[in-house]
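Hi, here's the filled form for the chain we discussed.

Project: internal
Contact: R.S.
Residues: 133
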Amino acid sequence: MASFTVVVGDPETGLAHQLEAEGQDANRFLGKSIGDEVDGSAVGLDGYTLEITGGSDDAGRPLNETVAGGNLKEVLMKGRQTGYRPAREGERRRITVRGREVSDAVAQINATITERGSADVEDLLGEDGDEDE
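And the returned structure, exactly as it came back:
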């Protein structure tokens, strides 16, 4: 069975929430690609819709939206891209990345909220803003 760490970004508040998806809930992410939408109930956000924006595997290799499938591939990168920051102008380097499709090899999925539900995110996740008390 697959299990993922899902980092959900909330563009309205600017906060990110790290959640776990295991078992049947994790299967909702399998086969989806960067840019696809997923029901938020897979991570406890009932009524919300999430858009997959990226991710990485257990070795830290990023998902690259220009590579099809979910396998590893070496890509010649130039300029600033996901997974590559050149040290000087004109530098190119061959970098190993994973394809844009979510597979069992992916450890972390990055997502953002595109459609909101009726309840607040903090209420659904059981988080309180009163951590000092």
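Let me know if anything looks off before we file it.
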